[in-house]
Amino acid sequence: MGCIQSSDAIEDWESSTYGGGGSAANGEVYVFVPGFRAPKNVELAAHLLLQQQASSSSISPELATRLVYLRSRISHLAAKPDRSSSHKSRHADDEQGVGDLAKALEGYLPLLMGLTTGGEKLSSGFRFEWTNVEDEKKETALSSAYYELLSVLHLLGMLAMQDANLMLTPTLEIDDYKSKIFEGIKRMAIETLLKAVSYFECAISAVIPNAPDDIKAKLPADLMEGMFIALEQQALGQAVELQLGFAVENVTASLAVKRRLACEQVKCWEQAQEKLACMPLAEGWGAKHILFAKWKLAEAKAMAYYFHAQVLEEGFEVDTHAHALACFRESVSYLKEGQRQRVYFNNTYPTSRLLPPIWGPMKHLSERIPREASSKARIFRDSYNEETAPETTPKLPDFPIALTAELYVLPPVDPAWESKCGYEARTSSLTVDVPSLLAKANQDQKLLTSVDLHRQQPVSPPPPLSLVAPEPVQA
Q1: Where is the composition biased (Low complexity) (predicted)?
Q2: Which residues contact 218 (CB under 8 A, 6 or more apart)?
Q3: pLDDT by position in tens, the chain (length 475)
Q4: Which H or E run contains 408?
Q5: Which residue spans within 94-200 are E strands per DSSP?
Q6: Per the omega criterion (within 30 degrees of 0), is the bond before 350 cis?
Q7: 3-state DSSP: the chain helix, strand, coil percent, rounded to 5?
Q8: All domains of the chain, ordered by start, with CATH?
Q9: 3-state secondary structure of 353
Q10: d(CA 174, CA 331)
């Protein structure tokens, strides 16, 4: 199956759909996956045996066998796939592989939870080792079950993003794109992206705050809090992009809705790019990830200014047509910037075989924006040249991001741990900080403005806050 990069297969990245860059290697970039970290095979069984001999702690052979088997299975499923098959069969194999690996990770979590909520002594001194993708170091090994837990959540999130990319990747010729990638698949992709958001948010709100400070200081760039936030915003941004595509294709959707979705997308990509810029990323996939964020941010701003200009045109304020024309020109400028960043992204090592396709709402707007901007400039010269042009481009309106993911709650500890000597059972502290999330939601609620919320994709503003925490989603 696997798309996981390993330290001895770096030279083969470009030939693998997964190897480090999702489907970027062959140009099929719809949801960018910078790469999957892979667990390395380690002598976990031998370590557990030594712990039994050196202390009064004990773990049954059955539990040790399950731990070793599940982690080994994850490593096996992360192996490089066979690329000799046809594109269509590879696509099916990739989808199957993503599902198999996700199930293996979910099966591993209840056992892993035992090492973070009472079984720390049993794993004391054991170094969990994973390959990295965007950190300067190829591998990181840390003696902490929290590190292992963050690695699993990161991989689950990246698998969900890769699954969304596979959904959106056409399996037939490009002429059959519209008939193959239909509305239902796009809606499924949105739900899958939100699943990725829930994994990343769990890492941010539940695991990282509880991890020891010395472990947090040693985390690779792939697992730093800033990277999880960047990935969360990227997944949200790509989900909002799909929503905007529905609105653009729907003749009944209002300009207010299109503008709001475009502005929400801008906010997501601004936050993603801001966090990525602060990360100590390596050349290669790290640099490519930054370029992808720059590309998508430029496209999002091009669309936001385009719809903002159309809304301004319908107004009656002083110099409104001059302000609208300034926004049209800004839209064209960002459209050109997005096209440049797209080429830079494609040409940056590891290079892609094909230039990534223009898809989604930009597929409809890439030609419409410059054409309409040129037309509006002529109309302005003929009819509104007495209006005064603004000194600076009008600012985009600030909307809170309405699209949210349900909370992901880590599974309970596997019952097999409860009878083990040396296991100090306690209530898990790895829960999402609900009060902080509610405070954040309350802040976003204040930013809501009166706007037409008719949407093609069923999305609503944040619900009224209550003192009762939202019902979590069990893993």
Answers
A1: 466-475
A2: 140, 142
A3: 333 333 333 333 333 434 444 545 444 688 999 888 999 877 666 656 555 555 555 566 777 788 888 988 998 887 655 433 345 545 666 777 888 999 999 999 998 998 887 655 666 667 889 999 998 899 999 988 999 999 999 999 999 999 999 988 877 654 445 555 578 889 999 999 999 999 999 999 999 999 999 999 999 999 999 999 999 999 999 999 999 999 998 989 999 999 999 999 999 999 999 999 999 998 889 999 999 999 999 999 999 999 999 999 988 888 989 999 999 999 999 999 999 999 999 999 888 778 888 888 999 899 999 999 999 999 988 888 888 889 899 999 999 999 999 989 999 988 887 765 555 555 556 665 544 554 554 554 444 333 333 333 333 433 443 333 334 444 4
A4: strand 408-409
A5: 128-131, 139-142
A6: yes
A7: 60, 5, 35
A8: 10-474 (1.25.40.280)
A9: coil
A10: 28
3-state secondary structure of 361: helix
Q: How far apart are CA 242 and CA 235, in angstroms?
A: 11
Measured in degrees and rounded to the nearest 5, phi and psi for residue 328 equal -60, -45
CB 337 within 8 A of CB 303: no
Q: Read out DSSP for 378-403? A: HHHHHH-TTSPPPSSPPPPP------
Cα distances from 180 to residues 125, 174, 244, 365, in angstroms, run 52, 9, 19, 21
> Smallest Cα–Cα separation from 144: which of 127, 157, 164?
127
Structure tokens at 251: 């003749």
Question: What residues form DSSP beta bridges with 139?
Answer: 131
What the block records as the tokens of 356 is 């990534």
Look at residue 66 and give its three-state secondary structure.
Answer: helix
Tokens linked to 85? 């098959």
Amino acid at 295: W
Distance of CA 464 to the CA centre of its chain: 27
Tokens of 363: 């597929």
Cβ-contact 241, 297 below 8 angstroms: no
One-letter amino acid at 420 equals K
How far apart are alpha carbons 143 and 364 in whole angstroms?
Answer: 51
Asked if residue 458 has a cis previous peptide bond (ω within 30° of 0), the answer is no
